[in-house]
Amino acid sequence: MNIGIDKIGFYTPDQYIDMEKLAEIRGVDPAKYTIGIGQEKMAVAPLHEDAVSMGANAALAILDDEDRAKIDLVLFGTESGVDHSKSGAVWVHHLTGIQENARSFELKQACYGATAGIKMAMGHIALNPDSKALVIGADIAKYGLNTAGEPTQGAGAVAMVLSSNPRILALDNDSAALTKNISDFWRPLYSDYAIVDGKYSNESYLSFLNDVWGVYKERTQRDLKDFEAVCFHLPYTKMAKKAILSLTAEASKEDAERLMSHYQNSIIYNKQVGNVYTGSLYLSLLSLLEQAPELKKGSRIGLYSYGSGAVGEFFSGVVQPDYKNYVNKGNNEALLNTRRELTTDEYEELLEKALPKDGSNIEMNTEQIKDGKAYLAAIQDNLRKYAVK
Ligand code: HMG
User: Fold this and answer.
1) What are phi and psi of 112, to 5 degrees?
2) What is the mean pLDDT of residues 192-212?
3) Where would a tag sit more exposed on the chain, N or C end, judged by fewer CB atoms within 10 A?
């Protein structure tokens, strides 16, 4: 029985900052951000959007009544959790109208959380072939104004329905994972901003890749020739270019060229959104599936997940016949192309805005919210109130 991704939905807030304009106010050559980092636009979340509302919106984009009846596992990967106790999964379960006899919980390991969800969902479906699972990766990436990490921020969510006989990607059950206790990136409980040792994080990302790819190859006897494309966790799109150069250092010209050409398709969405942490790898996969010409039947795609701290995993899947019929290229392009560009002043003000941390109440201005979208409506008596407009 094949198990894998049957549907993929994506959501990002409807406003962004242009990277060239950000470079200008930082006194940096714009090419550093657009070529050196590889980002064109960066999504910025308004106060009424958080990991929960974005995760719900990504799910609302794909769920139908059959999914709502069959999903009995809701797994919410995030490192932007909104409560120390209650999981974002419970709110998403409610906002999307999934039947009540379900397990719902949150998973945390930096950008690796959604991959942990996928691996768990595969086991669940193997035991319960009629079940479906909803796996979400939703985050707001924030390093703060005038920091080295600033051009690698972003906001957004990816939601995936996993099932038996999936229509998009059948996942192989032969991945290689690695855990090591390192301090390349973390976010203390008191802070809205991540702390990062940028150079070390880049090195760790590549060294984990090297390690898990080696183990994966040994276990599966597969090599680069067996992959039509490889998608990577994308903290910024240039990172995957470094990863491909490292993977293909001793590869044939043909393998290196094929992977590099698919890399261009796999970064189109991420380039316009920035780092969405847990969802980044899956946004890259979606970009590849929607933006590349139809991949041949049976094409295998490699996936590299990396979550600082750190856990890395290399795994793979096979694209399913007619998968193009089950992705939503038009909707996702419209989502990206109808966003409003923020001025640099608006961006700076918004990035520093935060919800009250002293228990006081707040009511959101809902004018900007589009019909059918989930949002944070208020905090009242320390309770977050979400709604769908
Ligand atoms: P930086 O020090 O500002 O940048 O930090 P730089 O000086 O290293 O320059 C970046 C690139 O731009 C370099 O290219 C320059 O040569 C190039 P590279 O050597 O890397 O190939 N450059 C130019 N190119 C064209 N024209 C120019 C120009 N000037 C320079 N004029 C850094 C960059 C990414 C370190 C920083 O933004 C940062 O700390 N970001 C956050 C950390 C991060 O994203 N790490 C990635 C790996 S860890 C990870 O993926 C996990 C994560 O997602 C978190 C999680 O798991 O939850 C972050």
Assistant:
1) -85, -10
2) 98
3) N
Q: Do 388 and 95 contact (CB within 8 A), yes or no?
A: yes
Q: Which atom of ligand 1 is nearest to the CA of 280?
A: 53
79 catalytic per annotation: yes
In contact, 321 and 301? CB cutoff 8 Å: no
SS3 189: coil
The active-site residue out of 40, 48, 49, 79 is 79
Quote the pTM value: 0.98
* Measured distance CA(157)–CA(9) in Å, rounded: 8
Is 233 assigned a catalytic role? yes
CATH of domain 3-388: 3.40.47.10
pLDDT at 223 over 90: yes
User: What is the enclosing helix (H) or strand (E) of 188?
Assistant: none
**154 CB under 6 A from ligand 1?**
no
Could you give the C-alpha distances from 231 to 236, 244, 287, 385, in angstroms and in order? Answer: 13, 10, 10, 36
> Does the beta carbon of 235 sit less than 6 angstroms from any atom of ligand 1?
yes
Band of pLDDT at residue 130, cut at 50, 70 and 90: very high
pLDDT score recorded for residue 368: 85
Residue 231 bears catalytic tag = no
Q: Give the amino acid at 241.
A: K
